[in-house]
Amino acid sequence: MHENIKYMQNKLMLKVKFMKHYLSFIGLILIIGILTQEYVALETDMLIVKEINISMNLTPDYNTSYVTIPDQREGVFGQMILINNTKDENKTASLMIISFSDKSILEIEASEVLNYFKNIIFGAFKIGGAKEMESYNLTNRYNQNVTIHALLMPGSDNSKFSRLQYMGLWDFDKLNYFFIVSEDKNLTREIIESLDVKDPSIDE
Predict the structure, then answer these.
(1) Which domain holds residue 37?
(2) What is the tally of structural domains in the chain?
(3) Within a domain: residue 173?
(4) Residues of 157-196 as b/e, b for ≥16 C-beta within 10 angstroms?
(5) Is the pLDDT reported for residue 127 higher than 60?
(6) Which bin fits 129, alpha (ψ -120 to 50), beta or left (φ > 0)?
């Protein structure tokens, strides 16, 4: 009787071992089948962030500093280059780069985005009391016409030291836009006409 029980136990253990090996083998076959099956080619567009090089033809009297804009909205982020003349504190400029990481912006023409920004930015200044004294066009190295708006800021009308703020807004592509502010007309022109954007990973 004892030998029969032991025989049945050994037989059961062999069945269990066999089932374990069988299931492992089936699992291996399924994995191999998944890895070796033919796939339909998939192609999609994605946005990535990459480094670019920005250069301007300015005299050695100028230095630059870089800051990020902390108050960022979802899908939009800003960066700013501060340009200062070490010999003349009045010759300064701020160059802002506004970038989008939302793919839906690609469905909108850059001209529409520019008009949207212009209405918000220049509209806000005018509501605050700024007066547009003149506007004119400059041409950058990419043959784009950049409209410069000269705004007299509020509170400076009766000051003998009153200065105009020269502002311009233009697109680099559908995802990136430039905005410049400066009190110096010549510096504004020099920056816009010489600004060059390059991808350092591409050999010329």
Answers:
(1) 1-41
(2) 2
(3) yes
(4) eeeeeeebbbbbbbbbeebebbbbbbebeebbbbbbeebe
(5) yes
(6) left
Task: Please state the pTM of the whole predicted model.
Answer: 0.73
* 172 falls within a domain: yes
Q: How far is CA 20 from CA 12, 32, 67, 92, 131, in A?
A: 12, 18, 62, 76, 84
- Rounded-to-integer distance, Cα 83 and Cα 39, Å: 53
Q: Nearest-CA neighbor of 195 among 47, 51, 83? A: 83
Same domain for 116 and 159: yes
Say yes or no: 73 and 36 in one domain: no
**Residue 118, exposed/middle/buried by CB under 10 A (0-12, 13-18, 19+)?**
middle
Model confidence band, residue 38 (pLDDT cutoffs 50, 70, 90): low
Residues 140 and 69 in one domain: yes
Q: For residue 101, what are the CA distances in angstroms to 47, 58, 75?
A: 7, 31, 5
Same domain for 121 and 151, yes or no, is yes
DSSP string, 52-108: -EEE----TTEEEEEEE-S---TTEEEEEEEEEESS-TT-EEEEEEEEE--GGGGGS
Beta bridge partners of residue 171, listed in sequence order: 177
Q: Decide if pLDDT at 42 tops 60.
A: yes
